[in-house]
Amino acid sequence: MSSLPSSKQISNLDGKAQKLFDLSYDATNQCVQCGYCLPACPTYESMGKESASPRGRINLVKMAAEGKIDIQQDLAEPIDLCLGCRACEVACPVGVPYGHILESAKEVIAEKQAEEKQFPFGDKVKSILLSSVFPYPKRLRFVGNLTRFYQSSRLNKVIRKGKIIDKISEPMAQMEKILPLLEAPAKRNKWGTTIPAKGETKASVAFFAGCIMDAMMYRTNRLTIELLTSIGCEVIIPKTQNCCGALHAHQGMMKQAKEMAKRNIEAFERSGADYYINNAGGCGAMLREYDHLLVDDASWYERAKEFVNKSRDISEMLVQYGPLPFKKEWQGMITYQDSCHLRNVQGVHQEPRLLLKSIPGATFIEMEGSDRCCASGGIYNLLHFEESMKILDAKMENVKKTKAATIVTANPGCLLQMRLGTERQGTSDQVQTLHLVEVLAEACELQ
């Protein structure tokens, strides 16, 4: 059997094809094209074409790395249409690292766009937000505070009545309607503080506040900390933490993602905590892959591995150090929608279910296809609204079959997407969508 060609044996590779070859070619050749990934892929199911499947995308990356197709013209769109849910990795019998291949392709595509100065308006806005807003916690909090004012002043009612946002962007208008009501900014936990455990201290944990969670869902962060202290955890909020870098990595901005990872590693190392806790499946997946992100940086790799070893989802900690101090019975049936990155990347799927089943009075109903993506995909539902809604509407039919009055998720993007689903289905007045932390806190009578 002949060995695979090296990049030197493939002539006429330009700079970007060469980089794609170096980053991903060996990984693409692990794929045996068996097709086990096809039934697991939400975009293949909704679009019905090979280029929308993991197998097809891997083959396109391989061909681009060999210089057989153009990176921008032939590869960019199929890669951009991938949700990045990574369900294919779980289904793959030979362990193809699809997430690594996807990230490599996105990095090279982003560099190619910059090189050729091919930036549509939407990409320019996205780049500005990711470069000038998300890396800066104070700026994000300012956005959150503006949103709170927008809601409390009832300006949102005026904007909706005039359909002002609809005229700019239908996806943005629909997302605005299902934003959670923000509580007073004064209730947001201050970074750099330590909250003592209630009773005996069982563990010291450092809490990752996130960017969207800290800016827009800080009530969930506050309740997360209260749940942790109720089971005996001292909670430290590292002052110099920042965005996890997931959104940047998903858009091919790997240099920025690596810099944010390093700042987080430093911030959490200084906490001296036993564990590093997060409450967002997407953020947690990124945090738990910092060792992969920094694998080529000898001065950071070991520190990244230690960071990963200490990282935990909130549900894991609550199961490990519980039981929770429940004080009231839950009324009605509950179903759970997995966060793709919590399940497929972090490997956490039993803990949230165990916690929901432990709530007094609660009836837990497993949803058909609960492990399949809801098509939030970070900002996928804004960039590819119609494709996202096809997948979401099918998901909501499965929710309907459960007859549950409460949908529970463990990721902010999933939370908003499922709320949008109930709006589209016309059941938002009958079915509520809550973060796992909110449900547990309510059962513990934490406000």
Please supply descriptive tags for the structure shown above.
single chain; 447 residues; alpha/beta; Fumarate Reductase Iron-sulfur Protein, Chain B, domain 2; Rossmann fold; four-stranded parallel sheet; 55% helix
Helical stretch tally: 25
Low-confidence stretches: none
Major sheet: size, sense and barrel closure? 5 strands, mixed
The CATH architecture assignment of the largest domain turns out to be 3-Layer(aba) Sandwich
In short:
It comes from Pseudobacillus wudalianchiensis. This protein is of the alpha/beta class and 447 residues long.
Overview of this structure, please?
This protein has about 450 residues and is α/β, with parallel strands linked by helices. The protein has 4 domains: about 5-120, Alpha-helical ferredoxin (Fumarate Reductase Iron-sulfur Protein, Chain B, domain 2), CATH 1.10.1060; about 130-175, no CATH class; about 185-320, Rossmann fold (3-Layer(aba) Sandwich); about 320-445, 3-Layer(aba) Sandwich (Rossmann fold). It has helices at about 15-30, 40-45, 55-65, 70-80, 85-90, 100-115, 120-130, 135-150, 155-160, 165-170, 170-175, 210-215, 220-230, 245-250, 255-270, 280-285, 290-295, 300-310, 315-320, 340-345, 350-360, 380-385, 385-400, 410-425, 435-445; strands at about 195, 205, 235, 275-280, 310-315, 335, 365, 405-410, 430-435. Strands 1-3-2-4-5 form a 5-stranded mixed sheet. The chain has a 4-stranded parallel sheet with strand order 7-6-8-9, sandwiched between helices. Helix 19 crosses helix 21 (about 350-360). It starts with 14 loop residues before the first helix and ends with a helix. The mean pLDDT is about 95. It catalyses: (R)-lactate + A = pyruvate + AH2; glycolate + A = glyoxylate + AH2. This is Glycolate oxidase iron-sulfur subunit.
